[in-house]
Amino acid sequence: MRKLVVIGAAVCVLAAVTVHGRVQDVKLLRPTYHLKDDWTFLVVITYPSWAALGSPSDEEAITKKLYPDYDRFQKEEQRRFEVLDSHWDVPLTPVAPPK
What we know:
Elements (H helix, E strand, L loop, with lengths): L1 E5 L4 H10 L4 E5 L12 E6 L2 H5 L4 H8 L3 H14 L5 E4 L7
Helix pairs in contact: 1-3
């Protein structure tokens, strides 16, 4: 199991990709305490394997189905990325706590 952390992801599209099996799980997190200015929420995407992460995606077809005005969706997505203060794609590896 591999995780990739993404800030600002299109959660509806991620949920649909999960149903199709390319993504194993999607979790949304926000800080409860000590809110910092550098992030509002976090999306953790869990892929079943590294191969799934790099596999072809049907994301465009899913997006077109969810958002019939695809051109408008793309413009709005572009605008969301333009106003982001920062964005990180960070692969994570689970670490077992010491015993």
